[in-house]
Amino acid sequence: MSESLAESVSLEQAKRLFEGSPHGALLGLELVELGESYLIARVPYRPELVGNPETGHMHGGVITTLIDQSCGAAVIRQAGPDARIVTLDLRVDHVRPAEPGHAVYARCECYRMAREVAFARAVAYDTDPDRPVATSMSAFMRLQEESARG
Predict the structure, then answer these.
(1) Buried/exposed code over 35-70 (b: 16+ C-beta within 10 A; e: otherwise)
(2) Helix axis angle, 60-79 relative to 11-19, nearest 10°?
(3) Are 85 and 72 contacting, i.e. CB atoms less than 8 angstroms apart?
(4) What is the CATH number of the domain that holds 41?
(5) How far apart are the C-alpha atoms of 14 and 31, rounded to whole Å?
(6) Is 96 part of a structural domain of the chain?
(7) 125 near 68, Cβ under 8 Å?
(8) Could you give the CA distance from residue 134 to residue 60 in angstroms, rounded to a whole number?
(9) What mean pLDDT do residues 17-22 have?
(10) What is the pTM of this model?
(11) What average pLDDT does this structure show over 87-101?
(12) Which of 14, 28, 127, 137 has the lowest tally of Cβ within 10 angstroms?
């Protein structure tokens, strides 16, 4: 990644990527850290995001959305603020349920940028990054100007 390109997407611009998604905003997704080659986002724990009322565990679909949107933001961070992408493939391995009452974080990085496809990976966790809730590998299609129109 060229340093100037990575720096072209500031923390505030990256935060707007999350705010600009109605679904992400509804869930409360927020960017919390922007590193040189990664970003960390979170979804706060809220009762309406619980998948199993008996256990209080957050719904797996909420965690999947956190991962998908965060990995997409990592790709845009590397590709540049005007990049247009769509999720091509998303694999999420839910390793264990998130602890009730805790936010879930996703640490994401775009590890390969090809001409038409970008690849990202993520680890989602609640209280300990070394004890994942889920892991993920994904691919994003980079839309070219001609194909982005229709």
Answers:
(1) eeebbbbbbebeeebbeeeeeebbebebbbbbbbbb
(2) 140
(3) yes
(4) 3.10.129.10
(5) 7
(6) yes
(7) no
(8) 9
(9) 78
(10) 0.88
(11) 97
(12) 127
Asked if the model's pLDDT at residue 6 lies above 80, the reply is no
Q: Does 131 fall in a domain?
A: yes
Residue 150 lies in a domain: no
Partners of 58 in beta bridges: 50
- The domain containing residue 140 runs over which residues? 3-145
For the chain, give the secondary structure using H, E and C.
CCHHHHHHCCHHHHHHHHHCCHHHHHHCCEEEEECCCCEEEEECCCHHHEEECCCCEECHHHHHHHHHHHHHHHHHHHHCCCCCEEEEEEEEEECCCCCCCCCEEEEEEEEEECCCEEEEEEEEECCCCCCCCEEEEEEEEECCHHHHCC
Domain count along the chain = 1
CB atoms within 10 A of CB 82: 9
Amino acid at 96: R
